Amino acid sequence: MKKFKFRYESVLKMRMNEEDRIKNELAKKIKERQNILDALENLSNDELEYLKHIDSVLRSGKANKEMHSFSEGKKYYKTLRDQYKLKLSKVEADIEGIKQLLVEAMKSRKVMDKLKEKAFQTYIDEYNEMDAKLIEEVVNYKNNKSNGE
Question: pTM of the prediction?
């Protein structure tokens, strides 16, 4: 009997490739989210250092000339933090969308895997049936030969 060949192997391979592509896209978005989170953390650290600097200047009593620049600096950090949070929310929404695509791609691949398993099981059953017929023919031939027919 010929070797097992799944009829829709190319479709299965295509669906597996699509699933891998979506996984890679998800990984890129997760990395982007992590970069934004790291930038937010660095921004918070920088802002804390800036606030410490403001506090030290205010304690020294030389803050009259720099009051306006202090408020501008605080606005800068607030604006930057808001921009990062907006980027973060967009990336997280993208991640959720990609996760949904991945679920659909995995379902499609699993359907093809099930079809392949069923086709292979059918192949095994047919192979066993043919093997049993061959054995039965050999046994019948030997019995007929020994009976003198």
Answer: 0.75
